[in-house]
Structures are given as structure tokens and as C-alpha cells.
Amino acid sequence: MRRIFLFLGILLLSISVSFAGSQNKKAQKYYDKAVEYFTAQNYGKAESKLLKAIDKDPNFSDAYLLLAKVYAKTSQIDKCQQYASKAYELTNGNNAEVLELMYELAAYNKDKKGMEKYGFELLKLKGQNATRTEIGRMEQLAIQYFQMGNMKKAEQIYETIMQAKPDYTYAYLNLGKIYIAMKNYNKAKTVLERGVAAGVDNEDIDFILASMYCNEFKEYKKAMPLLEKLINSNSKYKKDAYSYLINACKETENLDKGIEICTNFIKEFPEDKLTPEVKKRLEQFKKVKEAQKTKK
Questions:
Q1: pTM score > 0.70 for this model?
Q2: 214 near 223, Cβ under 8 Å?
Q3: Contact by Cβ (8 Å): 18, 65
Q4: Per-residue pLDDT of the chain (296 residues; tens, 9 = 90+)
Q5: Which residue in 214, 236, 239, 217 sits closest to 225, CA to CA?
Q6: What beta strand segments (E) does 186-284 contain?
Q7: For residue 58, what are the CA distances in angstroms to 28, 51, 86, 87, 101?
Q8: What is the widest separation between alpha-carbon atoms in the chain?
Q9: Gyration radius (Cα) of the chain, Å
Q10: Nearest-CA neighbor of 105 among 12, 7, 17, 18?
Q11: Of 292, 236, 234, 288, which Cα lies nearest the Cα of 264?
């Protein structure tokens, strides 16, 4: 019984009435009256009018959808499934309201394949207009698949999210973190770079990508712009970004930049525990630069 109440609670958030209409005037008249009864919460009379509308127009998708909602509201879940499925068939999966209801039914029945199917179709249909809730529940599925060891399914879901909503930060970030947990740094780098290329502006992505450039790939020049961005934006990773950037300057023999960054760190964090080490690094940069001048 508790599951029914949970289902109805979810359904209440998505109840609305569609108006695609029927060419059959009698069917439309029955449907319009059913809408009035439904709005007034007179579900028995709404059901009666909707059955008559369907009898007059067996392809009246709106009538099937509203009737499915009537049965959901009256806890007749089997009938709800029957009429929602017919609405889905008639709309060829191109109606967001129908897809939402099919997803909720799948969730109610703990049908993971159904949740995946209708969740995918809804994301593809709505694209950039997909809501945070619609995306978030697909992410939960992806995480579940990852925890079950089904990385292929998790990847597929995140790819669908990224295609539907290319500026959705957390698809790139979370998939990148999954790859890092698997020590698949090449895939992690690729997906995080896609996020940056898509215009995603996120300090977590910038820092994780920059640290991978330095630690796993020794691509210090690629890391440097991201690290400078983190420093200049007063990111929560600012001190770590300084540390990585100073080392990147050393590895790339960028003495002038190294002197600049060390000097800035000392001014900004004069009492920090890392400051003595940064001062030593500053002196090393200066000595190397002076030695190069002498050779010339």
C-alpha cells in the first residue's frame, strides 16, 4: 500500500492536461467534460466520459493519457499501466507527459530496464529543456550500474545526458571521477576535456584535469592555463594550484613565470607552512636565471 501512495505522490508533481485534441467532435466533447471532472477530483465521472471519448475515437491519445492518470489517482495501477501504454503507443514516444508517466510506472514496479528506456527517451525528447530531476534520476541509475560493475551501462547513460544537455557539468565531472576510481586516466582526461570544450566552467573539473596533466601525463603546459585560472578566480583549490603551477614552471623551465608565481604566493600567504619551501624554490629560479645570463 505504501508503494501506491509513493507513486501517487510522484504523480501529483506531473499532473497536467494535454490538449492535442480529436477530430471526432463527440469524442472531444466527452474529453472536455472529463477534464472538468478530473480538475474537480470527480474521478468516477471523469472515467465514464473518457471511456466514451475512446469509444468514439480509439486513437485519441490524450484520452488514454488522462484516463491513465484517473486510474493512478484511484490506485488502480494495473489499469493505469494499460492506458498509459496505449498512450505511449499512439504517440510513438514523442509526448513528454506520456514518457514521464511511463517512467514513474517503471519506477513504481522497480523495473530498471523500463526506467532506463523511458528516462533515455525523455532526455532525448526534451534535450536542453530536461529538468534537473529528470537528469538526476538517470545519474542515479548510472551510479547503480557502476556499483554493480556494469561500466558499459553507466557510460551509456552519461553519454546520453551529455548529448541531451552538453552544458550539464556533473555528467562530465562524475563520469571523470568514475574513470579515475578505475585508474583509467586516459578516459577520465578525455571526458573532462570534452566538458571544458563544451564550455563547462567548473573548478573541480579544472583542478582534476590540471592535476592529471601534471601527475599522470606530464603535460605541464596544458595544465598551466587551468592552474592560473584557479588562482585568479580565488578557487578553493588556490593553494594547491599554486603548488602545481610552481612545479610546472620548474618542469618546463619557465623561469620568469616561476619567479612571478613564487613571489605572488609569498605575498599572499606569508605565514603559510609552504612558504619557506616556496622561498627556496624562488631562490633556485633566480639562481638558474642568473647562471643563464652569465653564460650569455
A1: yes
A2: yes
A3: yes
A4: 334 434 444 454 344 545 568 899 999 999 999 999 999 999 999 999 999 999 999 999 999 999 999 999 999 999 999 999 999 999 998 999 999 999 999 999 999 899 999 999 999 999 989 998 899 989 989 998 999 999 989 999 999 999 989 989 999 999 999 999 999 999 999 999 999 999 999 999 999 999 999 999 999 999 999 999 999 999 999 999 999 999 999 999 999 999 999 999 999 999 999 999 999 999 999 999 988 887 76
A5: 214
A6: none
A7: 12, 10, 10, 11, 20
A8: 98
A9: 29
A10: 7
A11: 234
> Letter for the amino acid at 31?
Y
Q: In terms of C-beta density within 10 A (0-12 exposed, 13-18 middle, 19 or more buried), how is residue 100 classed?
A: buried
Q: Give the cell for residue 203.
A: 573548478
Q: Which three cell numbers stand for residue 146?
A: 557502476
- The Cα–Cα gap between 166 and 168 comes to 6
Cα–chain-centroid distance for residue 245? 31
Decide if 239 contacts 272 (C-beta within 8 A). yes
Tell me the C-alpha distance between 90 and 92, whole Å. Answer: 6
Contact of 261 with 245, CB cutoff 8 Å: yes
Other residues' Cβ atoms within 10 Å of the Cβ of residue 221: 11
**Amino acid, res. 237:** Y
The total number of residues written for the chain in this structure: 296
